[in-house]
Amino acid sequence: MNNLCADIGYRSINKSGEELCGDRVEVVGDGEKSTVIVLADGLGSGVKASILSTLTAKIIATMVAAGLKIEDCVETIAATLPVCSVRGVAYSTFTIIKIENNDNAEIISYDNPRVIFLRDGDECEIPTTSMTVGGKTVYRSRVELRENDVFIAVSDGCVHAGIGHALNFGWERKDICEYIKGFCRSGFTAKTLNAVLLDECYKLYGGKPGDDATACTVRIRRREPMNLLIGPPSNRDDCSKMMSLFFAKEGKHIVCGGTTSSIAAAFLGKRVRPLMEYHDPDVPPISKIDGVDLVTEGVLTVNKVLTYAGDYLSDNKLYSRWCGGHDGASMVARLLFEEATDINFYVGRAVNPAHQNPDLPLNFNIKMRLVDELSECLKKMGKRVKVSYF
Fold first, then answer.
1. Cα 38 to Cα 14, 94, 154, 311, 330, distances in angstroms
2. How many other CB atoms are found less than 10 A from the CB of residue 143?
3. H helices present in the chain, as ranges
4. Tens digits of per-residue pLDDT, 363-380?
5. Are 345 and 371 in contact (CB under 8 A)?
6. I need a labelling partner for 237 at 20 to 30 A (CA). Which of 185, 274, 321, 349 fits?
7. How far apart are CA 15 and CA 22, in angstroms?
8. Helix or strand (DSSP H, E) at 287
9. Domain spans of the chain?
10. Which CATH superfamily, name and number, covers 4-222?
11. What's the pLDDT at 1?
12. pLDDT (tens digit, 9 = 90+) per residue, 147-183?
C-alpha cells in the first residue's frame, strides 16, 4: 500500500426551471483498497432523468464495487431501465472511475464526454480500447497513478455550455481542459477545482443553464496527517501522557483552548505568546508556541470551524471567508478541510467552569458535541478521523 489517496469533489447545476437534477454522482468503497465513482446522465431532464440517472449510478457503483464485470453491469442496466420509446436512445449515459489500491485507475465510459486526465498540470492521453456490450459501445482505459494526477469527468451539460449565447459551439472539452490547467498547478483541492469549473460553466450559460451540468474531479494526493488537541484531561495526572501521545504523532499539531495551550507550552518547556490581533470579531485571536503549528482559543473557534464544515458540505458559500482568512477558525478550517487527509483528535474531558454559566449558550459536554459533529463532517469530506478522549 502506497501513501496516496483520492481526493474527490463533485457538484451539479440544474437545468433552468427544473427542481431536480437529471445527473447523478455516486461514490462507494472503503477509500483504501477500492473506490468507485460513477457519473450518470439521465435522458432528458427533470423527474424522469433524475430517476434514471440515480438508478443507473447506484446499480453500477454497487456492482462494480462488489467486483462484478463491467459487461454484467451494463447488461443489468439494459435489462432494468427502459429505452426511450420516442427517440429510441439510451436511458442513461455513464462514466466510471475505479481506483484500486490508490495506485491504478480504470476508466469506463458510455456516451459521456471523455474523461480529462491531467498530469503535472498538462493533459495526457490515455490508451483506450472499445468493446460492445448489449449492442452498446463502451470505452475502457487504465492508468498507473502518480501524485497530483487529476481526473475530471463531466456530463454533456458542461460541454454544451454557452451554445448560442457566449460561444458558437459550446464549451468544448479542449476548452475545459485549457481552463482548468492553471488551477490544477496551483494545488487546489478536488472540491475547489470542481467548484471553479462549474462556476464558469454557469456563467457561460448566462445564469440560465440549458441542461443539467455535472462535474466530478478526482485528485491523487499524498496522505497528510493532522493532530488537534482541545481541552485538558479530566485527571490532571494524565497531562503528561496526553501531551506525549499528541506530540509524538506525525504531522502538524493544532492546540485549541487557553488552559490546553498552557499545558502544552509547559510540556514543551516554552511559553505562550498571545497575538492580540482580531481578524474576525467573532473569533478570539490566536497565540504562538514554539513547536506548535497553530494555537487558538477553544470552543468559540471550533464552533466556527463546525459552521464552516457544514457549509463546505452543502453549497460552500462561506469559502471566500476562510480560504484566505487570518483568524483562528479560518486557519483551522484550511488545515482540516484542504490540507489534512488523516485527522487525530485528542479531547480532554475536564469541565471548564465558564461553560456552566447559564447565560452562555454552552452546555456541560460542549467539547464532546463539537468534536463529534466536526468529526462526522470531516468523515463526509472523505477524511480518516480518530478521536481519543482523556
1. 18, 7, 11, 24, 32
2. 17
3. 46-65, 70-80, 156-159, 173-185, 190-204, 239-248, 258-268, 299-313, 319-322, 328-333, 366-380
4. 446 878 899 999 999 999
5. yes
6. 274
7. 8
8. strand 287-288
9. 4-222, 225-389
10. PPM-type phosphatase domain (3.60.40.10)
11. 56
12. 999 999 999 999 988 776 656 567 888 889 999 998 8
Whether 143 contacts 85, CB under 8 Å: no
User: Hunting for cell 445564469 — which residue is that?
Assistant: 207
Q: How far apart are CA 240 and CA 255, in angstroms?
A: 15
- For the CA atoms of 220, 225, 230, 233, what is the dihedral angle to 10 degrees? 140
pLDDT of residue 96: 94
CA atoms lying within 13 Å on the CB side of residue 209: 27
Q: Is 325 exposed, middle or buried (0-12, 13-18, 19+ CB in 10 A)?
A: middle
Query: What letter would DSSP give residue 145?
Result: -
Cα 150 from chain centre: 14
- 3-state secondary structure labels for all residues of 212-225: CEEEEEEEEEECCE
Chain segment 181-240, per-residue pLDDT in tens: 988 888 888 999 999 999 999 999 998 998 999 999 999 999 999 999 999 998 889 999
Name the pairing type of β-strands 287-288 and 342-347. unpaired
Cell representation of residue 291:
513547536
Within 10 angstroms of residue 83's Cβ, the number of other Cβ atoms is 11
Residue from 99, 100, 88 nearest 43 by CA: 88
Q: Name 319's Cβ contacts closer than 8 Å, sequence gap at least 6.
A: 192, 195, 311, 312
Q: Which residue has the cell 490532571?
A: 236
Residues of the chain predicted below pLDDT 70: 1, 30-32, 81-90, 164-169, 352-365
**pLDDT attached to residue 167:** 60
- What is the residue type of 48? K
Written as nine digits, the cell of 7 is 481526493
CA within 13 Å, CB half, 352: 21
Pairing of strands 150-154, 116-119: antiparallel
Nearest to 11 by CA among 214, 185, 160: 214
Place of cell 483562528: 328
DSSP bridge pairs for 107: 97, 141
pTM comes to 0.86
